Amino acid sequence: MTSDHVVVESWLLICSRLGRTAAMRFWDALSIDVFTIVGVTAQDLRRGREIAQEWSDQAFSIVDCTSFALIERCDIRRAFAFDKHFRIVRFGWRRQRALQIVPH
Known about the structure:
Layout: E1 2-3, H1 4-18, H2 20-29, E2 37-38, H3 42-54, H4 62-74, E3 78-80, H5 85-88, E4 90-91, E5 97-98, E6 100-102
């Protein structure tokens, strides 16, 4: 599972680093349905903004924050991520729950 925001961010990164042709191949590959793409909701945007405020000492992007909101909403426990922010953020009561990050 991933969010539509992550898909767009990934496309932009691929395009800027590898070129439009590679980015278009990535886009075409999305039709294989290897993972589910979940749309970020207005509620996720609001919760993401709250997360940004709660973690104001961190440089979380809007995509990070909406991803964290989606993680909360869907009760996700494990994430595939290279972004260090996914190792920093904590969830639940008193921020006791960390995500299990793959790869280690």
